[in-house]
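Sample pair:
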Amino acid sequence: MRRILLIIITITILSTTSHAEYLVKLNTDITKFDTSNTILGSWVVVDSIENIDAVYIQENYVYTACDVADNNIGKPVLITETDMSKLPIKLPPKDTLVAILDTGVDLINEAIRNRIFKQYNVSSNNDNVQDECGHGTHIAGIITSLSNNMILPVKVLNGVGTGKSSDIAIGIKWAVDEGAKIINLSLGGTKYDQLLKETIDYAVEHDCIVVCASGNTYGERKIYPACLDNTISVGAIDKDGNISPYSNRGNAVDVYARGDVVSYNLDGEYEERSGTSMACAIVSAELSMIF
């Protein structure tokens, strides 16, 4: 019996490690690779790093929406139903495009659907951004209600709120090239990411403001991409103006906003969610009104 268990464990380890993905910044002729898979002209996703002449190698890290329960990001937060009327609505519409890189949006929700300028699903390489999680829909509801701007929903996270570094990078570049001036990243991971740094630098060089959730770590743990220099890192405060218990805090946080916010769920109803994701969306909306 013990031998059988050891065999099972060995097979599990091998199957896990053999499917690892890497992001490689090449120091060689890019045309030797499938150029359809390149990112920023020099990065490529590979399954093996053997015999590759590279400037930089990293894992294809996984990121998580910052109000979804995940051991690497934080704890689950309270969701309660309340009234959408508490959200102020500012008129008239502005011309600033706000890109929302998230789990997509609910395309059945007319209020959100009517505000979509263009949309993109990175992993499927099409325009199907239907939300299966609800996180992106909630974020989009906050931004459209507060700013009345048009949005670019970019689906980079899956139905459980996770997504790869490569997809997020592709999504950022797509949004920049489509004319976004504000990029909302209500997501985070725990490892420094050179690819995202370079992609965010690309966005800033094209006059974009990149707004990131600082994370729900109940402390000062570094969360990326919020900790990168060219981003605005957003923490959460409660109704009394105190830093919310779950919110990141410290020198890595640039600004704080309300973290308990009412917006849409996937049933087209209103609910309140808490997290730095929501605070991030408020800051993106406010910036889009003065950009």
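The chain has a mean pLDDT of 84.
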